[in-house]
Amino acid sequence: MSFALVLLPDFTLILIGAVLRRWVRFDEGFWAGLEKLVYFVLFPALLFHSTATARFDRTQTGAFVAAGCSITLLGFVLGYAARLVYRDGDATFASGVQTAFRFNSYLALAVAGRIGGNSGIALMALLLGTNVPLSNVLAVYSLARHGRIGLWGAMLRNPLILATLGGLVCNAAGITLPEFIDATLMRLGAASIALGLIAVGAGLRAEGANAPKPLIAWWLLVKLALLPGLGLMLAAKIGFEDLARETLVVFAALPTASSAYILATRMGGNGPLVAFLISAGTLVSVLTLPFWLWLSR
User: Fold this and answer.
1) What CATH architecture does domain 3-296 belong to?
2) 104, 282 in Cβ contact below 8 A?
3) Counting beta carbons within 10 angstroms of the beta carbon of residue 90, is it exposed (0 to 12), middle (13 to 18) or buried (19 or more)?
4) In the predicted model, what is the mean pLDDT of the chain?
5) Which of 24, 104, 197, 289 is most open to solvent, judged by the fewest CB atoms within 10 Å of its CB?
């Protein structure tokens, strides 16, 4: 089957979200509530269940996590490389550069589930659990001159991090989840994928490209082309097995996180620019993500 067709259901859900946001009269409170439900309840249930019940190759787990963190750090460095040319508009640059290394967790878990089932989700959860705090630190560092945010407290309360850590603790301790808890978490997790992708589509924006076009193009190139290429080389050099290699490349090829817009606006940055970069990256990834998945196999 074509890799584009493998991912078609996920991108179709994003399209459904975009259509619903623009042509169905749900108010803003509905969409805000949906995002909170997914972020604070459904996704944590999926992450906890996947990591608690997975069987990890412990001989390569450390190298796998290190490779994921290396990709995020490389994105940060490459994104900042544009500073050598673009020296104006500190708030604009600091807002946009985070889109070169942040990633969409909703799409990450959806694609991981498509390529590897529960094992793929568990591997992706490892990358999310370690790279969510790392990418937040790097993004806040970029915006620190334009506002303040309680970073460490927010990370300690981050439901994605807590759920992943809790699942890993249960896994390491050999705890078997009771059947009714296992079934409940599975149902919550199944709902999270569809609703999360619909929320991504609802957040797409067409306006806001108020920065030099070469700068926008560079950040999109870093996130959707350079990082997955580097991820593929890292996976080959380390010698990851099939699913780990594919998961790492998918992680590197993800479009940027919707939460980048929230951070930019909270810290006095250029929110419309970030909204445009999120939308453009998500749309371009319809083509690039299947391509990198094909190469990783």
Assistant:
1) Up-down Bundle (1.20)
2) yes
3) middle
4) 85
5) 24
